[in-house]
Structure to design on (221 residues):
């Protein structure tokens, strides 16, 4: 004879449900729903916290990405600036050395020319060599003028010392001439006039003396 297997717990549950009142069953279901709501709320809270964590992680990654871009841009920029300015500074250094050498040579030569011109002693010229000495002095001054102009042109060509209007800060020969003429006194021009007039006056006196002497000879005959 066969024996059927019967679950005692199932029988107990069935018997309990069969004996459970509607009010008790509603209370039990309410508790179950309340527990599920609590579990769901807790899960939502955990998801919110996880969302905040992910957002913070996202912001951190974005900030890291921005820093990397900024780093790469800044690195490229400073490399380009340094490289470009090294080349420019090397060129400027060559120009500076050339300018220093040019200024040193010009300054030395200007001192020599200045000493030579200041050594001209017009007062010591005698009347018989006055014109010759005047020609020599004038030739010396013209030579100094030409050498001065060439030196200033070379310095200006280097474009090293420029004022706001683009002109060289060193005086050109025209500026120097205008300045010297404008600053000359009446006594200077009087001396210049006398210096150029004395030879003429001297010749005229000689001619007058010769005329008088010849006239006296004629009357004596």
């Amino acid at each position: 004879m066969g024996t059927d297997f019967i679950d005692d717990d199932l029988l107990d549950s069935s018997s309990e449900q069969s004996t459970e009142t509607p009010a008790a069953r509603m209370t039990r279901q309410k508790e179950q729903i309340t527990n599920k709501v609590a579990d769901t709320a807790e899960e939502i809270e955990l998801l919110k916290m996880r969302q905040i964590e992910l957002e913070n992680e996202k912001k951190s990654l974005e900030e890291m990405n921005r820093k990397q871009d900024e780093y790469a841009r800044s690195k490229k920029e400073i490399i380009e600036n340094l490289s470009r300015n090294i080349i420019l500074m090397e060129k400027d250094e060559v120009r500076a050395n050339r300018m220093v050498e040019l200024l040193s040579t010009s300054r030395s030569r200007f001192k020599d020319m200045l000493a030579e011109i200041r050594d001209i002693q017009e007062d010591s010229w005698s009347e018989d060599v006055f014109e010759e000495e005047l020609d020599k002095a004038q030739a010396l001054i013209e030579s100094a003028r030409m050498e001065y102009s060439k030196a200033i042109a070379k310095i200006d060509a280097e474009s090293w010392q420029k004022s706001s209007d683009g002109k060289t800060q060193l005086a050109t020969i025209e500026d120097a001439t205008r300045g010297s003429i404008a600053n000359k006194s009446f006594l200077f021009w009087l001396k210049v006039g006398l210096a150029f007039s004395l030879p003429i006056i001297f010749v005229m006196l000689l001619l007058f003396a010769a005329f008088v002497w010849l006239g006296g000879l004629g009357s004596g005959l």
